[in-house]
Amino acid sequence: MEIVKIDKRIENIDNEIAKLDKDIKKQKKYLSQLIKEKDKVDGNLALFTLESNVSIKLDSIDEEAYVKEYLQYRDEVSDKDFFNRVLPLLKKIPESNGSRYFKKFEVNVGIVSDEFLYHSFKDVANFHYLTNKNYKELAHALDFILIVTTWKGLNKEWRGLANENSNRRKELYEIIEFFRGIDKKVVFYSKEDPVNYEKFVEIAKRCDYIFTTAEEIIPRYKEECKNENVFVLEFGVNPLYHNPVGMRTIKKSNDVFFAGSWLTKYPERQKETKDIFNGVIEAGRNLKIIDRNFEINHPDYFFPREYAKYISPSISHEYLQKIHKLYNWAINLNSVKYSNTMFANRVYELQAIGNIILSNYSVGVNNLFPNVFIINDSLEVKDIINSFTDEEVFEHQVGGIRNVMSSYTTFHRFNHLLLCIGEKGRLPKHRVLVVVNEMNQQIKQQFESQTYPYKHIVTYSEFTQELKEQFEIIAFFNSKYEYGEFYLEDMINAFKYTDVDYVTKSSYYNGEKFIEETEHDFVEKIGDKYRSVFWSSKFQLKDFNNMNGETPLPNGYSIDRFEFNMTSNVNKNVVQPKKYELSVIVPVYNNGKYLLNKCFNSLKRSSIFKEMEIIIIDDGSTDEFTKLIVKRLEKHYPNVRAYYFNDNGSGSASRPRNKGAELATADFITYLDPDNEAVNDGYARLLEELKIDTELDLVIGNMIKLDNTKKGNFLYYKTVNEAIGSSIIKKPHKLLIETNMRAQSIQALIVKKSIVVENNLKMIQNAGGQDTLFFQELLLHSKKTKVIDLVIHIYYAAVAGSVTNTITDRFFNKFYILEKERLPFLKKHGLINVYMEKRFNFYFKNWYLKRLNMIEEQHLEGSIDTLYKIYELYKEYIVIEDKIITTFERLYKKKEYNQIVVQCCLN
Description:
Helix content: 25-40%
Protein name: Glycosyltransferase
Largest sheet: 10 strands, mixed
Number of helices: 32
Structural class: alpha/beta
CATH class of the largest domain: Alpha Beta
Family: Belongs to the glycosyltransferase 2 family.
Number of strands: 33
GO molecular function: transferase activity
Coiled coil: 3-37
Strand content: 15-25%
InterPro entries: Glyco_trans_2-like, Glycosyltransf_2, Nucleotide-diphossugar_trans
CATH architecture of the largest domain: Alpha-Beta Complex
Oligomer: single chain
Radius of gyration: 31 Å
Number of domains: 6
C-alpha cells in the first residue's frame, strides 16, 4: 500500500516537472524573440530625458543570462535619475486648497480598496480604511461599508484577496458577516470587470448591493448572485486630487509621457503600445516612460529594448499627479476595449490634470470622450501631435478639464451610489446671478448661449443685497466684452477644485492682442470684475460697487485665457470669396461633441484644410449643444458654411448629404460623418490623384471600422486588384459582379461633383444603409475610377445613437424604404441575379435576422412584419434556398414571432 502511494507521488511530481518544462520552453521562446530586438532609437533626448549612447549586443543566451544582460543594459541606458532632476520643479507646482463648490457628504463609510480608488474617493465623504484589526472598533460609527476589488490594498494588508482560498479572503468574509449581523449595508464595487469577474464574484454574492464599472456584466451578477440590486458605477476624478492647479506654472516638455506597465499577457495591447510609442518617436518627439514594475525585475514586465533609454523607475502616485503637469501630451492604454463603461481610469484623471491623451481604442472612451485621440496606426501620431499650435494645445486641454469637472467627478459618482443604495444624495446645483452693466440683444444672446444651466440675469440697477443673497455665485458681464459659450461653466468649475472666494481671468485677449499674466494658479488681485466670478456669501453689495479696475483681493484663482475677449465680435468671420478645391459635406444631428473632436479636428490636420469648403448641414438637431458647436465652428473658421433644417430631423443622413451636394461650390466632393475621422492626409492624396489624371471621375481608398467587438480593415484596394488585376476601373458593372457587389464607404472617396449633379444622384431619404446604394451609383456613373492603397478614414461603428446601433421597429422601416429602391436599381443595371446568388442570403441573415433579439418586446411584432415585407420583395428572385430563411418564412406564416427570434437569429 505504501509503495502505491509513493508511486502516485512520483507520478504527480513527474507531471509537475513536465508542466514546468513546458512553461520554461514557452518563456524561452518569448525571450528569444525579445533578444532579437535591436535598439532602434537615437540618443537625441529632450527637456526631461537623460541622454545616453550606451549599446549592448546580446548573443544567444539562456533565460537567466538574458535577464541579467537586460537589467544591465537597462541600468546603463535608462533614466534612473529622472525623479531627482524634476523634483525641484514639482515643488514649485501649487496644490488644490480644497473645494468651494463641493462639500463632503456627511456619511461615514468603511472602505477596502487600493490606493488609486482610495485617492479618488477620500475627499468625497468620511472614509475609514478597514483592516482585519480595526473593523470592530469602527463598526458603530459607520453608516455602511464599501468593498472595492483590490489586489493588495493600501499597504499590502489585503494582498492575496483575489485568491478565494487565501486567509485575506476569509478575513474579508468575516468582516462582511459581522457588518451584516449588525444591520449595516455592505456594498461591493468591482473595478476589475470584465477581465477578473471570476476572481471576485464570490465576494459580491455576500453583499447587499453590487456595483461594476462594466455595464455588460450586470446580467451575470444578477443571475449568479441572485440579486437585483446591481448597478453600473464608472470611474471619476477627485477634483481635490486630480486637477489642473499649477499646470501653467512650469514650462512644459514637448515629450510624451506614459506611466504604466508592459504586460506580456495582453499581446494586442503590446502591439498597440508599440504603435503609439513608435509614432511618437517618428514624429520627432521623445518618450518619458515611468515603469510601474521597474523594481520587479521580471521578464514578463520588461519593455522592449528600443524603449529602455526612455524608462525611469516607478514614482509614488501623489508625485505622478504633478509630473503629468510637466507635459502637454500623455499616453493611455486600455486593456478592456469593448465595454461601453469600463476603460482605464487614467482617461478621466489625465484630462482633469490638463493632458491631451493619445490612446488605443476603447468603445467607451470613443463614445464618452471623443476629444481623446484614438491611435490605430503609428502614422497617425505625427499628424496629430505636430498639427497643433501651442494655443490649440492649451485650448484642447481646457476642453478636457471641462469634460470631467462638469460631469465626471467622484462627487457625482458617490451621489449616484448613495441614491442606488437608498441613502440620501445631495449633489449641489449652485445658481449664478449674472449682473450686466447694460442690457442689449448681444449680451442677452451671450447669456442664453452659456452652457452652465443654473443662471439668471439682471441689470446692475436691479442688483440688490437681497437679490445677491438668493444666489451662491455672482458674475458680471460687460456689454462691450465678448463671453464665449463655456465662460461660466469653466469659471464655476474652478470652484470645484479650489476653495477660493473668486475666480478670474488674469490672462485674456483684447481683440487679437494677448495680455499674459497668471493662469491656473492662485492670485491676490482681480484686474476687472467683468471677467471674474465671485462666491456670493463672501462679499457684500458694497464690495462689488467698489471694485473698479484692478483691485487687491485675497484668496482668488485665475484660470485660462479662453472664452473671453475685451473686444466683442472679434471672431466674426468676414467671408472672402474663394474657389475651394474640395467640398466636404458633414451631416449633423445631435452629435456636436463628435463633430468638434472627431470629424472637424481630423479635417484640421489635413494639409489641404484651407482648400476645403466644409459644409455642415444640421438636420434639425434638438440638442442645443450641437447647435452651439455648429455656430461656433462657422463663426471661427472662414471655410466653414452651415445650413440648418429646423424641423427636428429627417431620420437619416440622406437629406443633409443631398443638401450639401446642392450647396457645394468646389469641383470635387466627399462626405464625412461627425463621429468619424479622416486620417493619413487621405483626402489630400485622393485629390492629388484627381489632379494628376483629369480623366478620373472617382478615387477611392481604404477604411478602418471599429465597433464594439473588433477592428475591421476594409481594404477596397485589395478587393479591386484581386478581382480585376488593376487599380484602374473602367468597367464598373463587371467589377460589381466580380466583387459580389462589394461596396466601400462614401467617406473614403472623392468624386467629381459633376457625376452627382449631372446624373441627378440622390441618397434615399428616411432610409438606413443608403450609403451602399449611393456608392454603387457613383461607381456605375464614373467612366474611370482609381483605387489607392491608403486608409482614408476611420468609421467608429459603436457610437451610441447611430441609426445602425439603435434597434427599434424604426430600424426595419428605414431599411424597407431602402430595399424598395434597391430592387429596381438591381434590375435596371442587370445585377439582380448576382445579388441574389452572392449577397442576399448572407445579408438577410447577418444584417436583418441577427438584430431581432436586440429589439424590445413591444417592437418585435412590428419589426418582424416589416422584415417579412422585405423578404417578399425578393422572394421570387431567390436563387439558392437557405434553411434559416425558409424557417423564417414558415414561422412567420404561423405568426410565431418569438420562435423566429429563437430559431433564426445568428448570434
